[in-house]
């Protein structure tokens, strides 16, 4: 039996999966991702320790490989990865610093200066990406100003998936979708943008060569084989941005497909046949970048989703086990009680407008509101936020007739029903849950020659989906609540701009 291995390097966990050539999972292994605050005096500085990233990847790979039959053959391995977070490597490929996490706020001043000096519209219309406080460009500027001695010794600035690949096979490269996370890459030209680099004062020579996802990088070395359990000589293939890998097993590579990927971020992803940057999309939070599918592009709008429910669980249900919280979420999603209004902007608003000063809030709380009603309000707020983002997709000419939902939230039928009701669209959920790792495995299969192309990989490795139709009562209820949601957002704007709470936006750690 031949297997493909997919790695999923995410904010909440690092996972590995072994899949046969028909997409059936043989083994999934998972460990929590580890982020730390090195200096308590600077709580805004958060990193992923590079040793922990590699050690955790090794652990999940070992667990998966050891569970396979003794005569199993590993056809290839590829990694899907969260965006933006990178590490500087010296000429010996030794890390000189830890990964600055996307939850880290140290680079916000550089982001704000870039908005003033370069501008959001110019950035989007050049690269398809709006500036964000955690974009790679601002990490490089921060390192240049605060640790020039490190940057002087740096040969390459490497994103997390590319770091793991280098440890596996000794080769350095990145794919187009990950390069687009940096603000320094032009998807239309499939090349690094020298003009932006010059304006930012960063050296493009620090960036890895950019290649299409699915490109064969090299083979697992003897040293990596000893640490991971992967057979020496296993092909290592370029994966890509995690949300795009997660869209592959449900046919999300086809133009017109719209996928809702639920994780720490709640993402609406649509596949485009052409690279198009309409001016109407400026300021909406939409990003247009290369897809991991050859010749395709991706538009996505995103906001914190699972990060908000994790915050709620940690704050209002500490110590509750997974089964109990699943039951609470099911009850909350089905609640028909009179609810407070919840604004889910705990990390600012990232769609359908970009507003870093926006903040989360419960409005209209009563003594009758307990934990269940508050969680129901959280789900409603997340649903309405997604509805607003999806509606803004009209600026890209997108009017979906259905939604494909994957990720952690798709495992709860109550949440799926409430999402269908909020959007007024049928929602299809695949039978497989580990779509990100499976999408990486599909790219591994293409790069290793197991599949001729993406269409063949999708035909072989996709599964049946279950459809949830919106209900009339549910759609009416969300229609009624949408105006309250919008009114609350507008009403709190002057409060947020005056710096209520801690005086500014705070990133959620998950």
From TrEMBL:
Keyword Phosphoprotein found: no
Keywords, in A-Z order: Kinase, Transferase
InterPro entries given in the database record: Carb_kinase_FGGY, FGGY_C, FGGY_Carb_Kinase, FGGY_N
Pfam families: FGGY_C, FGGY_N
One term of GO molecular function: kinase activity
Domain Carbohydrate kinase FGGY C-terminal, first and last residues per copy: 259-447
Domain Carbohydrate kinase FGGY N-terminal, first and last residues per copy: 3-248
Similarity comment: family membership: Belongs to the FGGY kinase family.
Name of the protein in its database record: FGGY-family carbohydrate kinase
Organism ancestry: Bacteria, Pseudomonadati, Pseudomonadota, Alphaproteobacteria, Rhodobacterales
């Amino acid at each position: 039996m031949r297997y493909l291995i997919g790695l999923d390097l995410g904010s909440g966990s690092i996972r590995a999966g072994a899949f046969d050539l028909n997409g059936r999972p043989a083994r999934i292994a998972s460990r929590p991702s580890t982020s730390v605050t090195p200096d308590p005096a600077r709580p805004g500085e958060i990193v992923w320790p590079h040793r922990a990233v590699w050690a955790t990847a090794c652990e999940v790979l070992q667990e998966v490989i050891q569970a396979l039959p003794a005569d199993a053959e590993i056809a290839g391995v590829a990694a899907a990865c969260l965006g933006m977070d990178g590490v500087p490597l010296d000429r010996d490929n030794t890390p000189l610093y830890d990964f600055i996490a996307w939850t880290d706020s140290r680079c916000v001043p550089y982001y704000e200066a870039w908005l003033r000096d370069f501008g959001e519209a110019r950035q989007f219309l050049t690269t398809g990406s709006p500036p964000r406080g955690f974009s790679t460009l601002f990490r490089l500027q921060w390192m240049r100003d605060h640790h020039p001695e490190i940057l002087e010794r740096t040969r390459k600035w490497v994103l997390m998936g590319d770091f793991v690949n280098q440890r596996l096979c000794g080769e350095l490269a990145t794919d187009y979708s990950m390069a687009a996370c940096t603000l320094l890459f032009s998807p239309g030209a499939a090349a690094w943008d020298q003009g932006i680099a010059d304006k930012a004062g960063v050296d493009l020579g620090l960036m890895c060569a950019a290649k299409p996802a699915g490109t064969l990088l090299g083979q697992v070395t003897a040293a990596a084989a000893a640490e991971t359990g992967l057979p020496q000589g296993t092909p290592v293939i370029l994966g890509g941005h995690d949300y795009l890998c997660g869209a592959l097993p449900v046919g999300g590579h086809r133009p017109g497909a719209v996928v809702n990927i639920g994780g720490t971020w709640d993402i609406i992803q649509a596949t485009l046949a052409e690279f198009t940057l309409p001016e109407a999309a400026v300021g909406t939070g939409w990003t247009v970048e290369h897809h991991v599918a050859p010749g395709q592009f991706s538009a996505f709008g995103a906001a914190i989703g699972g990060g908000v429910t994790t915050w709620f669980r940690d704050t209002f249900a500490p110590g509750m086990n997974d089964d109990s919280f699943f039951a609470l979420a099911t009850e909350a999603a089905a609640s028909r009680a009179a609810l407070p209004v919840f604004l889910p902007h705990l990390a600012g608003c990232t769609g359908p407008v970009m507003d870093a000063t926006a903040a989360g809030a419960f409005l209209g709380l009563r003594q009758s509101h307990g934990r269940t009603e508050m969680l129901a309000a959280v789900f409603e707020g997340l649903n309405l936020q997604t509805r607003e983002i999806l509606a803004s997709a009209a600026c890209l000419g997108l009017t979906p007739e259905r939604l494909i939902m994957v990720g952690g939230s798709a495992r709860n039928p109550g949440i799926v029903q409430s999402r269908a009701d909020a959007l007024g669209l049928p929602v299809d959920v695949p039978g497989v849950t580990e779509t990100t790792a499976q999408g990486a495995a599909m790219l591994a299969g293409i790069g290793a020659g197991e599949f001729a192309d993406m269409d063949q990989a999708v035909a072989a490795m996709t599964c049946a989906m279950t459809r949830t139709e919106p209900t009339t009562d549910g759609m009416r209820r969300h229609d009624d609540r949408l105006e309250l949601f919008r009114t609350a957002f507008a009403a709190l704007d002057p409060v947020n701009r005056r710096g209520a709470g801690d005086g500014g936006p705070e990133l959620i750690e998950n």
